[in-house]
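Render this sequence as a predicted structure.
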Amino acid sequence: MILERLVVGMLQTNCYLLCDEETRQGVVIDPGGEASRIIGRLQELDVTLVAILNTHGHFDHVLDAWALKEALGGLIFLHPKDEPLLMDHKVGLGAVFTAATGSSHGKVDEWLEEGAELSFGNLRLKVLETPGHTPGHVAFHLPEAKVLFVGDTLFAGSIGRTDFPGGSYTKLIQSVKDKIFPMDDATRVLPGHGPETTVGIEKRTNPFF
């Protein structure tokens, strides 16, 4: 597989490109800005974009999802509980877009849910509901490769904020304990911001646990 991280946008979001090397089918996770750069890299890799996956609805993770779809195709995925956040004027697209924004912004093609499996090429991503940072936050697990895309639920040595609309500290802590920490210690944790870590490191050293 091909797995690359691009740090994009005003809040330095980790956007991930994940591609099956054999079929060249791929997905983009959390395209929070700099669509032209993401598009250019996908074209360099000769990747067919089949899906745009969003861990949650904050603008710094979904901002350029629709630009990618317009340029390269692919379905936009989000959990339904985060749909109200898309146009929120503090954390959603409403914070950065005006009424002049095209009507396609904010339209989601497919809804995510716990246990769903997303297949492209020879790769399978499993959806885990991890609420707390937002009501509909999800993580994407690639079990065979021991890779977990956690969005803003867990960071190296920290956790995501819970003081935004719909946030819950209690739910976030429970999400990490129930969904992430039971995984193999060697599982790579790829967060929405900052450096990657592992399940084992966070279990042993994260001060919130």
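Summary. The first helix runs from residue 35 to 44. Residues 98-103 have pLDDT under 50 and may be disordered.
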